[in-house]
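Weekly sync, protein design subgroup
Attendees: M.S., D.O., the rotation student, P.L. (late)

Item 1: inverse folding check
M.S. brought a backbone from last month's batch and wanted to see whether the design step gives back something sensible before we order anything. D.O. pointed out we never logged the input encoding, so this time it goes straight into the notes. Structure tokens as presented (461 positions):
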């Protein structure tokens, strides 16, 4: 593999001829030399290539090398005369690989993220999106490292599901039926027996239920893959296609679950700070002031724990500042979550023991009969990034709960069998990967931390 610009920048000056391959970010002319900043995505800052105009005056080469062009520059690494960098490339051979006409949208000036979203196929060539891509990569790596080093098995749960589980209403349907000519049953309903799977199928909103089945054999497992929600909410925190990390642990209660969630998040944050120092400096300077110090603080202090009931007591006193006033039993909105983390705890907060009515059917019922062992991890600026719980492992309690909610046991037959054959207390959580990236980088809109965001009325590229 050819040497990357990141490595070239770490070299000490020598007479050896090295090669830089990349795209021209900027071109600057002085009387005798031309400076090209060449970037190949391995670092934020490219290498400065210094071209002696007298040597390269025989054709239009330099005129044709413009911002955005791809080039190969060869030469020696020398001490840089300018103050902005330690070393630079003194060019002895230069090739223009692909020229770049003047209508290239990323000319040197600051572009808005809104503009760049329209140019998502080119935006990775900007400082911001290059840095986001590298941090996203490091975070994926850190997630696998954390679980692999702790003995978790990576399980691939299906993306197409025919069990109409959670999130009914916000699922995307998968069908091969002819929509112009939908087959109907005698009583006028859609005849799904004619559909590809012989029944109605959807894209998954979570791999949890299938993940649980593997935890009941392998003890500790995790999934890390795309999930889909037909969210009609046009927020800066919701996508229609996003990535979720879902560990599931057998013989683990809610306390163990929270401990893993905290250790896991801190490990990811620390890995990014260790590996992406230059990118994080960029976010700190241009995206979210103080984000590095904030992460360092989070890594070194324990998360604050709070029951839902206590959280409501705190929030009720502030009701005049909220769009949605709080009362016991209501779901917490992001304005409440942000208040708890930003104003009260000034750190991530884990809220536990929510009213059973506002949480999913599978969460373990507490002794009070009113609350469940759910836990959400909330962070400043965003609110919820993790939702998790201890699962209801008692068959009779689970069946009663499903009956209460009008869920049909036969639709969940395989899930219920886990409670019949060697049931065991178990717990897990789901981390929204893009929300975690938003938190680490300070990027305000979730559409800018995934290469090609999907949301209402938008699936370009
Ligand atoms: P919210 O109330 O913020 O919509 P949720 O309660 O629907 O979240 P869960 O079903 O618990 O979320 O999903 C687990 C995690 O997945 C959430 O904590 C969040 O980080 C992430 N998440 C949920 N929905 C989305 C979405 N539409 N886009 C991106 N991430 C999401
Ligand atoms: Mn949601």
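Designed sequence read out in the meeting:
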């Amino acid at each position: 593999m050819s040497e990357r610009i990141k490595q070239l920048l770490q070299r000490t000056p020598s007479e050896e001829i090295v090669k830089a391959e990349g795209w021209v970010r900027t071109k600057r002319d002085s009387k005798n030399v031309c400076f090209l900043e060449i970037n190949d995505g391995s670092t934020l800052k490219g290498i400065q290539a210094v071209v002696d105009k007298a040597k390269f005056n025989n054709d239009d080469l330099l005129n044709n090398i413009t911002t955005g062009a791809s080039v190969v520059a060869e030469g020696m690494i020398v001490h840089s005369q300018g103050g902005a960098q330690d070393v630079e490339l003194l060019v002895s051979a230069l090739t223009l690989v692909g020229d770049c006409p003047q209508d290239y949208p990323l000319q040197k000036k600051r572009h808005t993220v809104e503009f760049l979203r329209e140019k998502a196929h080119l935006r990775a060539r900007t400082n911001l999106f290059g840095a986001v891509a590298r941090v996203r990569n490091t975070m994926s790596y850190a997630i696998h490292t954390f679980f692999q080093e702790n003995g978790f098995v990576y399980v691939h749960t299906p993306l197409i599901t025919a069990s109409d589980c959670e999130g009914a209403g916000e699922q995307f349907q998968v069908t091969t039926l002819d929509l112009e000519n939908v087959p109907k049953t005698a009583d006028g309903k859609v005849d799904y027996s004619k559909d590809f799977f012989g029944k109605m199928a959807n894209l998954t909103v979570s791999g949890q239920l299938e993940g649980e089945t593997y935890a009941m054999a392998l003890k500790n497992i995790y999934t890390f893959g795309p999930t889909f929600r037909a969210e009609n909410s046009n927020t800066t925190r919701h996508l229609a296609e996003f990535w979720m990390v879902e560990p599931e642990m057998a013989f683990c209660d809610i306390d163990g679950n929270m401990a893993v969630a905290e250790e896991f998040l801190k490990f990811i944050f620390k890995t990014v700070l260790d590996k992406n120092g230059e990118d994080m400096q960029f976010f700190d300077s241009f995206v979210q002031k103080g984000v590095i110090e904030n992460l360092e603080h989070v890594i070194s202090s324990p998360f604050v724990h709070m029951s839902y009931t206590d959280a409501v007591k705190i929030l009720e006193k502030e009701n005049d500042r909220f769009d949605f006033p709080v009362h016991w039993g209501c779901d917490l909105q992001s304005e409440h979550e942000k208040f708890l983390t930003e104003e009260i705890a000034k750190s991530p907060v884990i809220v536990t023991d929510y009213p059973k009515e506002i949480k999913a059917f599978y969460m373990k019922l507490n002794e009070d009969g009113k609350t469940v062992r759910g836990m959400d991890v909330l962070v400043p600026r965003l609110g919820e990034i993790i939702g998790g719980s201890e699962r209801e492992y008692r068959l009779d309690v689970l069946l009663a709960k499903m009956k209460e909610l009008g869920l049909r046991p036969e639709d969940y037959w395989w899930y219920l069998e886990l409670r019949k054959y060697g049931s065991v207390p178990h717990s897990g959580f789901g981390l929204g990967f893009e929300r975690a990236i938003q938190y680490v980088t300070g990027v305000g809109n979730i559409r800018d931390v995934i290469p090609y965001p999907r949301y209402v009325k938008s699936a370009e590229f």
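Discussion: The longest strand covers residues 17-29. Residues 46 and 430 are 37 Å apart (CA to CA).
Action: P.L. to compare against the previous round before Friday.
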